[in-house]
Design a protein that fits this description.
This protein is α/β, with parallel strands linked by helices. It contains 15 helices and twelve strands. It is globular and about 65 Å long.
Protein backbone atom coordinates (compact mmCIF):
# COMPACT_ATOMS: atom_id res chain seq x y z
CA UNK A 1 0.00 0.00 0.00
CA UNK A 2 1.36 3.42 -1.02
CA UNK A 3 0.40 6.25 1.35
CA UNK A 4 1.10 9.90 0.57
CA UNK A 5 1.47 11.95 3.77
CA UNK A 6 0.83 15.67 3.31
CA UNK A 7 2.00 18.16 5.93
CA UNK A 8 3.04 21.80 5.79
CA UNK A 9 6.43 21.27 7.39
CA UNK A 10 8.80 18.35 7.45
CA UNK A 11 10.22 19.04 10.92
CA UNK A 12 8.73 22.11 12.58
CA UNK A 13 5.73 21.78 14.89
CA UNK A 14 3.89 19.00 16.68
CA UNK A 15 2.02 17.84 13.58
CA UNK A 16 5.30 17.44 11.68
CA UNK A 17 6.73 15.37 14.51
CA UNK A 18 3.62 13.18 14.59
CA UNK A 19 3.53 12.77 10.80
CA UNK A 20 7.19 11.73 10.68
CA UNK A 21 6.70 9.23 13.49
CA UNK A 22 3.72 7.73 11.72
CA UNK A 23 5.69 7.52 8.48
CA UNK A 24 8.51 5.64 10.20
CA UNK A 25 6.04 3.33 11.90
CA UNK A 26 4.33 2.59 8.58
CA UNK A 27 7.69 1.74 6.99
CA UNK A 28 8.37 -0.72 9.78
CA UNK A 29 5.05 -2.45 9.14
CA UNK A 30 5.11 -3.10 5.41
CA UNK A 31 3.42 0.11 4.21
CA UNK A 32 5.16 2.41 1.71
CA UNK A 33 4.74 6.04 2.78
CA UNK A 34 6.10 9.18 1.16
CA UNK A 35 5.72 12.76 2.35
CA UNK A 36 5.20 16.06 0.57
CA UNK A 37 5.61 19.38 2.36
CA UNK A 38 5.13 23.04 1.44
CA UNK A 39 7.38 24.15 -1.38
CA UNK A 40 5.66 27.40 -2.32
CA UNK A 41 6.70 30.17 0.06
CA UNK A 42 4.73 32.69 -1.98
CA UNK A 43 1.48 30.95 -1.02
CA UNK A 44 2.37 31.38 2.65
CA UNK A 45 3.12 35.09 2.30
CA UNK A 46 0.05 35.73 0.14
CA UNK A 47 -2.29 34.15 2.69
CA UNK A 48 -0.65 36.07 5.56
CA UNK A 49 -0.99 39.29 3.55
CA UNK A 50 -4.69 38.68 2.92
CA UNK A 51 -5.25 37.91 6.59
CA UNK A 52 -3.27 41.02 7.58
CA UNK A 53 -5.71 43.10 5.55
CA UNK A 54 -8.73 41.38 7.13
CA UNK A 55 -7.20 42.04 10.55
CA UNK A 56 -6.96 45.75 9.71
CA UNK A 57 -3.18 45.75 9.51
CA UNK A 58 -2.70 44.27 12.98
CA UNK A 59 -0.57 41.23 13.77
CA UNK A 60 -2.78 39.96 16.59
CA UNK A 61 -4.37 36.63 15.58
CA UNK A 62 -2.33 36.55 12.37
CA UNK A 63 -1.35 32.94 13.13
CA UNK A 64 -4.47 32.03 15.09
CA UNK A 65 -6.59 31.72 11.95
CA UNK A 66 -6.19 30.37 8.41
CA UNK A 67 -8.34 30.76 5.30
CA UNK A 68 -6.57 28.36 2.90
CA UNK A 69 -6.80 30.69 -0.08
CA UNK A 70 -3.39 29.71 -1.48
CA UNK A 71 -1.33 26.54 -1.72
CA UNK A 72 0.25 23.88 -3.92
CA UNK A 73 -1.52 21.67 -6.43
CA UNK A 74 -0.02 18.28 -5.56
CA UNK A 75 -2.21 16.21 -7.90
CA UNK A 76 0.36 16.40 -10.71
CA UNK A 77 3.13 14.94 -8.56
CA UNK A 78 4.42 11.44 -9.23
CA UNK A 79 3.97 10.59 -5.53
CA UNK A 80 0.33 11.60 -5.68
CA UNK A 81 -0.41 9.58 -8.80
CA UNK A 82 1.15 6.47 -7.26
CA UNK A 83 -0.63 6.82 -3.93
CA UNK A 84 -3.35 4.40 -2.88
CA UNK A 85 -4.33 6.75 -0.05
CA UNK A 86 -3.77 10.47 0.46
CA UNK A 87 -3.25 11.21 4.15
CA UNK A 88 -3.60 14.89 5.05
CA UNK A 89 -2.17 16.18 8.31
CA UNK A 90 -1.65 19.89 9.16
CA UNK A 91 -1.95 21.56 5.76
CA UNK A 92 -2.26 25.27 6.60
CA UNK A 93 -0.11 28.35 5.98
CA UNK A 94 0.26 27.87 2.25
CA UNK A 95 0.45 24.08 1.95
CA UNK A 96 -3.00 23.42 0.49
CA UNK A 97 -5.81 25.77 -0.42
CA UNK A 98 -9.45 24.69 -0.31
CA UNK A 99 -9.28 24.62 -4.11
CA UNK A 100 -6.29 22.26 -3.91
CA UNK A 101 -8.22 19.96 -1.57
CA UNK A 102 -11.13 20.00 -4.01
CA UNK A 103 -8.74 18.82 -6.74
CA UNK A 104 -7.56 15.98 -4.49
CA UNK A 105 -11.16 14.93 -3.87
CA UNK A 106 -11.96 15.18 -7.59
CA UNK A 107 -9.16 12.69 -8.32
CA UNK A 108 -11.24 10.02 -6.49
CA UNK A 109 -8.24 9.09 -4.37
CA UNK A 110 -9.21 7.88 -0.86
CA UNK A 111 -8.52 10.68 1.62
CA UNK A 112 -7.75 10.36 5.33
CA UNK A 113 -7.37 13.62 7.25
CA UNK A 114 -5.74 13.63 10.70
CA UNK A 115 -6.93 16.53 12.82
CA UNK A 116 -4.14 18.03 14.89
CA UNK A 117 -6.43 20.87 15.98
CA UNK A 118 -9.94 22.19 15.25
CA UNK A 119 -9.30 23.88 11.90
CA UNK A 120 -10.99 21.33 9.64
CA UNK A 121 -14.13 21.51 11.82
CA UNK A 122 -14.38 25.32 12.07
CA UNK A 123 -14.45 28.24 9.68
CA UNK A 124 -10.99 29.70 10.20
CA UNK A 125 -9.69 29.07 13.74
CA UNK A 126 -7.41 26.35 15.06
CA UNK A 127 -8.76 26.54 18.60
CA UNK A 128 -12.17 28.12 19.27
CA UNK A 129 -11.75 28.56 23.01
CA UNK A 130 -15.16 29.14 24.56
CA UNK A 131 -16.79 29.96 21.20
CA UNK A 132 -19.41 27.42 20.11
CA UNK A 133 -20.39 28.98 16.79
CA UNK A 134 -18.81 26.08 14.88
CA UNK A 135 -21.61 23.82 16.16
CA UNK A 136 -24.10 25.68 13.96
CA UNK A 137 -22.25 27.86 11.49
CA UNK A 138 -19.33 30.17 11.99
CA UNK A 139 -19.71 33.93 11.96
CA UNK A 140 -19.26 36.78 14.44
CA UNK A 141 -15.71 35.47 14.84
CA UNK A 142 -13.92 36.49 18.03
CA UNK A 143 -10.59 36.57 16.20
CA UNK A 144 -11.68 39.18 13.67
CA UNK A 145 -11.68 42.93 14.41
CA UNK A 146 -14.76 44.01 16.29
CA UNK A 147 -15.81 40.41 16.82
CA UNK A 148 -16.69 40.03 13.14
CA UNK A 149 -20.27 39.97 11.91
CA UNK A 150 -22.71 37.22 10.98
CA UNK A 151 -21.48 36.68 7.40
CA UNK A 152 -17.85 37.54 8.03
CA UNK A 153 -14.72 35.82 6.75
CA UNK A 154 -15.19 32.88 9.11
CA UNK A 155 -18.73 32.27 7.85
CA UNK A 156 -17.70 32.50 4.19
CA UNK A 157 -14.83 30.04 4.73
CA UNK A 158 -17.12 27.74 6.73
CA UNK A 159 -19.55 27.76 3.80
CA UNK A 160 -16.77 26.81 1.35
CA UNK A 161 -15.70 23.95 3.59
CA UNK A 162 -19.26 22.67 3.83
CA UNK A 163 -19.54 22.47 0.04
CA UNK A 164 -16.12 20.84 -0.12
CA UNK A 165 -16.96 18.11 2.39
CA UNK A 166 -20.30 17.38 0.72
CA UNK A 167 -18.42 16.40 -2.44
CA UNK A 168 -15.69 14.42 -0.75
CA UNK A 169 -15.13 10.95 0.61
CA UNK A 170 -12.96 11.88 3.58
CA UNK A 171 -12.37 9.94 6.77
CA UNK A 172 -11.34 12.30 9.56
CA UNK A 173 -9.10 11.09 12.38
CA UNK A 174 -8.83 12.98 15.66
CA UNK A 175 -5.70 12.44 17.74
CA UNK A 176 -7.70 12.38 20.97
CA UNK A 177 -11.15 11.23 22.06
CA UNK A 178 -11.74 14.76 23.28
CA UNK A 179 -11.21 16.24 19.81
CA UNK A 180 -13.27 13.43 18.27
CA UNK A 181 -16.20 14.39 20.48
CA UNK A 182 -15.82 18.08 19.67
CA UNK A 183 -15.52 17.36 15.93
CA UNK A 184 -18.74 15.35 15.98
CA UNK A 185 -20.49 18.43 17.38
CA UNK A 186 -19.29 20.53 14.44
CA UNK A 187 -21.85 21.46 11.81
CA UNK A 188 -19.21 20.61 9.20
CA UNK A 189 -18.36 17.11 10.42
CA UNK A 190 -21.41 15.91 12.38
CA UNK A 191 -22.62 13.72 9.50
CA UNK A 192 -19.16 12.49 8.48
CA UNK A 193 -16.97 9.69 9.80
CA UNK A 194 -14.59 10.83 12.56
CA UNK A 195 -12.31 8.20 14.09
CA UNK A 196 -9.94 8.59 17.06
CA UNK A 197 -6.34 7.37 16.80
CA UNK A 198 -3.52 8.85 18.92
CA UNK A 199 -0.10 9.74 17.59
CA UNK A 200 2.57 7.02 17.83
CA UNK A 201 5.96 7.19 19.52
CA UNK A 202 9.02 4.98 19.27
CA UNK A 203 9.59 3.78 22.83
CA UNK A 204 12.99 2.38 21.88
CA UNK A 205 14.13 5.96 21.22
CA UNK A 206 12.15 7.81 23.87
CA UNK A 207 12.96 5.80 26.97
CA UNK A 208 14.40 6.29 30.48
CA UNK A 209 18.12 6.95 30.87
CA UNK A 210 20.51 7.79 33.69
CA UNK A 211 19.41 11.13 35.17
CA UNK A 212 22.80 11.92 36.67
CA UNK A 213 24.58 11.41 33.34
CA UNK A 214 21.99 13.51 31.50
CA UNK A 215 22.46 16.40 33.93
CA UNK A 216 26.22 16.21 33.65
CA UNK A 217 26.03 16.39 29.84
CA UNK A 218 23.68 19.37 29.98
CA UNK A 219 25.49 21.18 32.78
CA UNK A 220 22.49 21.01 35.10
CA UNK A 221 22.79 20.76 38.91
CA UNK A 222 22.57 17.29 40.41
CA UNK A 223 21.37 18.47 43.82
CA UNK A 224 18.10 20.15 42.78
CA UNK A 225 14.60 18.98 41.86
CA UNK A 226 14.09 20.10 38.28
CA UNK A 227 10.79 20.96 36.59
CA UNK A 228 10.55 21.17 32.80
CA UNK A 229 8.40 23.63 30.85
CA UNK A 230 8.25 23.25 27.06
CA UNK A 231 6.67 25.23 24.25
CA UNK A 232 7.77 26.05 20.74
CA UNK A 233 7.24 29.66 21.82
CA UNK A 234 7.37 29.97 25.60
CA UNK A 235 5.29 33.15 25.62
CA UNK A 236 2.36 31.41 23.90
CA UNK A 237 -0.46 32.05 26.38
CA UNK A 238 -2.34 28.94 25.24
CA UNK A 239 0.42 26.80 26.74
CA UNK A 240 -0.31 28.28 30.17
CA UNK A 241 2.98 29.93 31.06
CA UNK A 242 1.24 32.55 33.23
CA UNK A 243 -0.51 29.87 35.28
CA UNK A 244 2.78 28.04 35.72
CA UNK A 245 4.51 31.19 36.95
CA UNK A 246 1.66 31.95 39.37
CA UNK A 247 1.73 28.38 40.70
CA UNK A 248 5.48 28.52 41.25
CA UNK A 249 5.17 31.84 43.08
CA UNK A 250 2.50 30.32 45.29
CA UNK A 251 4.66 27.29 46.06
CA UNK A 252 7.75 29.32 46.94
CA UNK A 253 5.65 31.58 49.17
CA UNK A 254 4.39 28.54 51.10
CA UNK A 255 7.57 26.48 50.89
CA UNK A 256 10.52 28.92 50.90
CA UNK A 257 13.01 26.05 50.74
CA UNK A 258 11.95 25.49 47.11
CA UNK A 259 13.79 28.66 46.15
CA UNK A 260 17.01 26.80 46.91
CA UNK A 261 16.21 23.15 46.12
CA UNK A 262 14.04 23.52 42.99
CA UNK A 263 14.82 24.74 39.49
CA UNK A 264 12.98 25.13 36.20
CA UNK A 265 14.38 23.99 32.86
CA UNK A 266 12.85 25.96 29.96
CA UNK A 267 12.89 24.42 26.50
CA UNK A 268 11.67 26.60 23.64
CA UNK A 269 12.00 29.95 21.93
CA UNK A 270 11.77 33.29 23.77
CA UNK A 271 12.52 31.66 27.12
CA UNK A 272 14.52 34.72 28.17
CA UNK A 273 11.27 36.72 28.27
CA UNK A 274 9.86 34.66 31.16
CA UNK A 275 12.93 33.39 33.02
CA UNK A 276 13.15 36.38 35.37
CA UNK A 277 9.45 36.05 36.28
CA UNK A 278 9.99 32.70 37.98
CA UNK A 279 10.86 32.68 41.71
CA UNK A 280 13.39 29.84 41.40
CA UNK A 281 16.59 29.38 39.46
CA UNK A 282 15.98 28.81 35.74
CA UNK A 283 18.01 26.96 33.13
CA UNK A 284 17.13 28.04 29.61
CA UNK A 285 18.18 25.66 26.83
CA UNK A 286 16.42 27.67 24.10
CA UNK A 287 14.93 26.07 21.02
CA UNK A 288 16.38 22.60 20.39
CA UNK A 289 15.92 20.64 17.16
CA UNK A 290 18.28 17.75 17.90
CA UNK A 291 16.17 14.78 19.00
CA UNK A 292 18.95 13.17 21.05
CA UNK A 293 19.39 16.35 23.07
CA UNK A 294 15.64 16.68 23.59
CA UNK A 295 15.50 13.13 24.97
CA UNK A 296 18.45 13.95 27.22
CA UNK A 297 16.60 17.01 28.53
CA UNK A 298 13.55 14.90 29.40
CA UNK A 299 15.75 12.43 31.21
CA UNK A 300 17.44 15.18 33.21
CA UNK A 301 14.27 16.44 34.93
CA UNK A 302 12.00 15.16 37.68
CA UNK A 303 8.68 16.58 36.48
CA UNK A 304 7.10 18.03 33.34
CA UNK A 305 4.42 20.69 33.75
CA UNK A 306 2.19 21.68 30.82
CA UNK A 307 -0.78 23.77 31.99
CA UNK A 308 -2.21 24.20 28.48
CA UNK A 309 -5.50 26.04 28.27
CA UNK A 310 -6.45 24.18 25.10
CA UNK A 311 -4.58 21.25 23.57
CA UNK A 312 -5.25 18.12 21.56
CA UNK A 313 -2.82 15.32 22.41
CA UNK A 314 0.51 17.01 23.24
CA UNK A 315 3.53 15.12 21.89
CA UNK A 316 5.57 16.57 24.74
CA UNK A 317 3.52 14.78 27.40
CA UNK A 318 3.90 11.51 25.51
CA UNK A 319 7.65 12.05 25.13
CA UNK A 320 8.10 12.96 28.77
CA UNK A 321 6.17 9.94 30.03
CA UNK A 322 8.05 7.63 27.67
CA UNK A 323 11.23 8.81 29.38
CA UNK A 324 9.72 8.01 32.77
CA UNK A 325 8.98 11.61 33.75
CA UNK A 326 5.56 12.18 35.40
CA UNK A 327 3.46 15.09 34.17
CA UNK A 328 1.14 17.74 35.58
CA UNK A 329 -1.45 19.49 33.43
CA UNK A 330 -4.92 20.99 33.45
CA UNK A 331 -8.09 18.98 32.93
CA UNK A 332 -8.65 20.07 29.34
CA UNK A 333 -8.42 18.67 25.83
CA UNK A 334 -6.73 15.30 25.46
CA UNK A 335 -4.51 15.79 28.51
CA UNK A 336 -6.70 13.76 30.93
CA UNK A 337 -6.55 10.87 28.44
CA UNK A 338 -2.77 10.83 28.78
CA UNK A 339 -2.21 11.59 32.46
CA UNK A 340 -3.83 9.15 34.86
CA UNK A 341 -4.50 11.26 37.94
CA UNK A 342 -2.05 10.50 40.75
CA UNK A 343 -0.88 7.34 38.98
CA UNK A 344 1.60 8.75 36.46
CA UNK A 345 1.08 12.44 37.19
CA UNK A 346 -1.54 14.93 38.30
CA UNK A 347 -4.55 16.42 36.47
CA UNK A 348 -5.36 19.81 37.98
CA UNK A 349 -8.73 21.50 37.78
CA UNK A 350 -8.93 23.78 34.76
CA UNK A 351 -7.33 27.21 35.26
CA UNK A 352 -7.04 26.51 39.00
CA UNK A 353 -3.65 27.85 40.08
CA UNK A 354 -4.10 26.48 43.58
CA UNK A 355 -4.69 22.95 42.32
CA UNK A 356 -1.86 23.26 39.79
CA UNK A 357 0.52 24.19 42.61
CA UNK A 358 -0.82 21.30 44.69
CA UNK A 359 -0.20 18.89 41.83
CA UNK A 360 3.36 20.11 41.31
CA UNK A 361 4.17 19.80 45.01
CA UNK A 362 2.62 16.36 45.46
CA UNK A 363 4.13 14.88 42.33
CA UNK A 364 7.56 16.36 42.88
CA UNK A 365 8.01 15.80 46.60
CA UNK A 366 5.26 13.68 48.19
CA UNK A 367 4.54 10.83 45.75
CA UNK A 368 6.57 7.67 45.10
CA UNK A 369 8.83 8.88 42.27
CA UNK A 370 9.85 5.39 41.14
CA UNK A 371 6.25 4.19 40.95
CA UNK A 372 5.12 7.27 39.04
CA UNK A 373 7.97 6.85 36.57
CA UNK A 374 7.19 3.19 35.95
CA UNK A 375 3.48 3.92 35.48
CA UNK A 376 4.28 6.70 32.98
CA UNK A 377 6.42 4.40 30.83
CA UNK A 378 3.83 1.62 30.92
CA UNK A 379 1.05 4.00 29.89
CA UNK A 380 2.93 5.08 26.79
CA UNK A 381 3.90 1.53 25.83
CA UNK A 382 0.34 0.26 26.15
CA UNK A 383 -1.44 3.16 24.42
CA UNK A 384 0.93 4.84 21.98
CA UNK A 385 3.32 2.18 20.67
CA UNK A 386 4.06 2.26 16.96
CA UNK A 387 2.68 -1.17 16.11
CA UNK A 388 -0.71 -0.68 17.72
CA UNK A 389 -1.20 2.75 16.13
CA UNK A 390 -0.15 1.57 12.67
CA UNK A 391 -2.61 -1.31 12.73
CA UNK A 392 -5.44 1.10 13.47
CA UNK A 393 -4.39 3.42 10.65
CA UNK A 394 -4.14 0.53 8.19
CA UNK A 395 -7.73 -0.36 9.06
CA UNK A 396 -8.78 3.22 8.29
CA UNK A 397 -6.81 3.23 5.03
CA UNK A 398 -8.51 0.00 3.93
CA UNK A 399 -11.87 1.43 4.89
CA UNK A 400 -11.19 4.56 2.84
CA UNK A 401 -10.11 2.48 -0.18
CA UNK A 402 -13.19 0.28 0.05
CA UNK A 403 -15.49 3.30 0.35
CA UNK A 404 -13.94 5.02 -2.66
CA UNK A 405 -14.39 1.90 -4.79
CA UNK A 406 -18.11 1.66 -4.12
CA UNK A 407 -18.58 5.41 -4.20
CA UNK A 408 -19.81 5.85 -0.62
Amino acid sequence: MNVLIVNTSERTGGAAVAANRLMEALKNNGVHPTMVVRRNKFAFYWERFCLFLHLRLKRKNLFTIDIANAGDDITHLKEFKEADVVHLHWINQGMLSLRNIRSIIASKKPVVWTMHDFWSSTGICHYPGSCAHYKASCGNCQYLPGGGYKKDLSFRTWKRKRKLYERGNIIFVACSKWLQGKARESSLLKDLLVESIPNPIDTTVYCPADKKVARQHLGLPEDMSLILFVSQRITDERKGINYFIDAMNLLVERHPEMKQNTGVVILGGKSDEVADRLPVKTFSVGYVADEKKIIEIYNSVDLYVLPSLEDNLPNTIMESMACGVPCVGFKTGGIPEMIDHQKNGYVAEYKNTEDLARGIRRTLFDADAAQLSLAAVEKVKSHYSQNSIVLRYVEVYNQAIASSRIGI
